[in-house]
Each structure stands twice: as C-alpha cells, then as structure tokens.
Amino acid sequence: MKIATYNVNGISARLPVLLRWLAETKPDIACLQELKAPQEKFPEQEIRNAGYEAIWHGQKSWNGVAILSRAGKPEEVRRTLPGDDEDTHSRYIEATVDGVVVGCLYLPNGNPAPGPKFDYKLRWFERLTHHAASLLHSGKPVILTGDYNVMPTELDVYKPENWVDDALFRPEVRSAFHTLVAQGWTDAIRKLHPDEKIYTFWDYFRNAYGRNAGLRIDHFLLSPAVAGRLHAAGVDKDVRGWEKSSDHAPVWIELK
C-alpha cells in the first residue's frame, strides 16, 4: 500500500499538476491540504476520472483537506478536530480506508509569533495531541499525515539560524511536535532516513527550490500497528519543479 500527502496550495489552480502526479505515481491513498476551495468547488468528477473516490472538507479561499482512495470510497469518521466547537477552519478530516484509519491534517501556520495566530496554533496542537492519544488507545492501525507546519529539528530546515523566531520553528512548536511523537508515534521519514537532509517545501522566492533551501514540514506519523509495516518513504521532489506547481512536494510511504 502506497500512501501520500500533498499540500496542493489551491486545487483549482494546481489541478493539472495533481492529476499528472496521480497518474504517474498512483498512490493508493492521497491526502491533500490547502484546497482553497469551497465544498461545492471540489473537482470530484476529475478526481473520479483519475481513478479515485474522495471525501473532502472545503473552505472558501483558505484551508481545506481531502482524502482520496483507489480502494473504494473512504469511510468518513470525522471532519473536524475535537475540542473546539467554535473552530470553523477546515483543517482536519479522518476516514477508514482498507482497514487503516487515516487522519489528514493542515496545522495552522501561526505567524506572526507571538500573537493570536500563534496562540491558536498551540491550542490546535494541544487538541491534535489529545485526539491522537485516543487514536493510539484504540489499538487500530492509524496514520496521521499532512502539513504540520513545524520543522522538528535543525536537520529539517535550511539555515536554521534564520528561523529561530518563526512560528514553524519556535521552541514551543517543536516541543509540541516532540510531545505528540513521544506518545508512541513513528516519524516515518526519520525512521528510514535518520540523518538525511530531506525537505518537503521550498518557497517561491529567492530561487529556494534551485538552491535546495527548503523545509521539512509535511510529516507521516504512524501508530505501532502500522509502523512495523513501514517499507519505504520518500519525497517526490521533482514535482516541485513542474510548471505551476505547489510550493510543497508530495511525500509518500509504502507499507508491506
């Protein structure tokens, strides 16, 4: 089973890139973030023509998450992260696909920090950590994947000294990520590539992609019931170089 995550940075504008990537790599499950489209504007027919069934949670101009599957329609479990009934951001969707629970998430950016947006990010992280604990307690095979908007270590960011005050790299955020992982999750990329500089995002400015001045902010966290099946993991870096592509590249894992 091949599972991928991809922050598409606007599904309408990037649809040709998304469809090309799906056709070339054929992941069994694909989690998408930053749809930037209302619920009714999701390209369901185009996705179905590509061989995928989908569930999604859209939002006009911002956010938005989706789960695509080639193994039948994902069985939706929830489309909001528990813990705040007043949070209207479309940032989380969860489904069962082929016996695996898949949580697709788009964690808040949090800039500028400090400030209200940073406080919201930390609260969202707390909610995610609480929900993740309940998922672990279930004993089911669970995958939490998406754009976490955090570089966990200095290895995950080009020139870390330039990011010390950024909401993606502040100590509070990195600590929150490590607290989450410490529950018993496996960071798939780091499990198989512990010492490599691997990035998943390159800014559109200053020739960041050409210089490989990137960040690793898109992650796969695997529960124990899944981690033992981890066979391979990587980043489709070349997709970032395609015309009119997202500033993220797809990240994927393969399970035995």
TrEMBL record:
The keyword rRNA processing does not apply. One of its GO terms (molecular function) is metal ion binding. PROSITE patterns: AP_NUCLEASE_F1_3, AP_NUCLEASE_F1_4. Its cofactor is Mn(2+); Mg(2+). Residues 4-248 form the Endonuclease/exonuclease/phosphatase domain. Transmembrane segments: none annotated. CDD domains: ExoIII-like_AP-endo (cd09086). This is Exodeoxyribonuclease III.
